Amino acid sequence: MAVDAEGAVREWLNARADLVGPGRPIPLGAHLTYLRSPGKGTYAYLQVVAGSRALSAERPVHAARVSAMFHGTTRETSARAAVAYATALEALEGFPTAMGAGAICHTVADISGPLATDEHESNREQFVYVVDADFYLSAAADLTA
How much is the pTM? Predict the structure, then answer.
């Protein structure tokens, strides 16, 4: 069964009080669309950039490469958010974790970044850092069946 990987990662990240909220590295949280004029802090824009379904009778798994782009008003705030997110992902390697009500993340692998990107030509925030990672997910219902 396929899993909404973007939604699962968004729910997991937005539930992390150590990462999201006022005074935290990602004060505006994770979103599936770009925010307009987010002058009050950094946010993560999430997007699946690759994926596959490795289905077996024992364990249906959806592999998704999720790219998190941290948009901020300064290079420092964007970098801080990306580093905090990458560090949180490292803690998931090999430890099954609920991601919202609908998904279980079995592990995270191949974390790349933070990588600074040049957004000076866009109409969005100029300072963006990117972290990509492979999430191995299954629907929570698959585990109870």
Answer: 0.88
